[in-house]
């Protein structure tokens, strides 16, 4: 895991980022008892070298106010080093994305990589939408393709009749230029047979 962290240069190390984000995390109301417990359990169960059982019990002690436990957890992780800070960010991303993406270092990183905020979540989502015409459009296109395949299959050994040629000829009116060329060349090939 450490190789992944050090394999690309960061403007700030994860430890430095956690130092910068600590004040925000301490003051954020979303960092409640339940979230702190989830983070401690994640770090303890998956990475016991970061938080052993005794330390996890200390940070999960409900007799101590959550704000104090959070401050102690953050300073403990900063003392543990890069990998511990990285795993804290990973756990925070898993359990509280809204908190993770509102961290000052994350906001700063987004602003420096995309200063005009042109790369918003809506824009990213729209890049992967092929069309917004819905399932009926897909069904109609699929039906046309199946119809052409059906005509091709049934006219394989014999030439196309006049009626079939007319239907295929009129069908090309609704297609783009490439589809028209394919259908017209198919009609020409079948007429020559």
From TrEMBL:
Q: Which protein, by its recorded name, is this?
A: Caspase recruitment domain family member 19
Q: Which domain of life is it from?
A: Eukaryota
Alphabetically ordered keywords of this record = Membrane, Transmembrane, Transmembrane helix
Transmembrane parts of this sequence: 135-153
Task: Report whether Membrane shows up as a keyword of the record.
Answer: yes
A single GO CC term for this protein reads: mitochondrion
Q: PANTHER family given for it?
A: CASPASE RECRUITMENT DOMAIN-CONTAINING PROTEIN 19
Q: Show the InterPro entries listed in the entry.
A: CARD19, DEATH-like_dom_sf
Q: Does the keyword Membrane apply?
A: yes
Source organism (scientific name): Paramormyrops kingsleyae
């Amino acid at each position: 895991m450490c190789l992944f962290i050090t394999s690309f240069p960061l403007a700030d190390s994860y430890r430095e980022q956690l130092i910068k984000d600590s004040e925000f995390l301490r003051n954020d109301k979303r960092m409640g008892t339940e979230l702190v417990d989830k983070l401690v359990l994640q770090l303890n169960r998956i990475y016991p070298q970061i938080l052993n059982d005794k330390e996890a019990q200390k940070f999960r002690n409900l007799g101590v106010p959550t704000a104090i436990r959070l401050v102690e957890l953050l300073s403990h992780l900063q003392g543990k080093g890069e990998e511990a800070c990285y795993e804290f960010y990973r756990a925070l991303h898993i359990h509280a994305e809204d908190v993770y993406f509102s961290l000052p270092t994350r906001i700063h990183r987004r602003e420096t990589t995309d200063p005009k905020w042109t790369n918003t979540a809506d824009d990213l989502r729209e890049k992967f939408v092929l069309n917004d015409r819905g399932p009926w459009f897909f069904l109609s296109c699929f039906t046309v393709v199946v119809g052409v395949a059906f005509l091709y299959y049934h006219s394989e050994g014999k030439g196309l009749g006049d009626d079939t040629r007319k239907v295929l000829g009129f069908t090309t009116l609704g297609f783009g230029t490439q589809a028209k060329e394919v259908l017209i060349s198919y009609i020409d090939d079948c007429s020559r047979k």
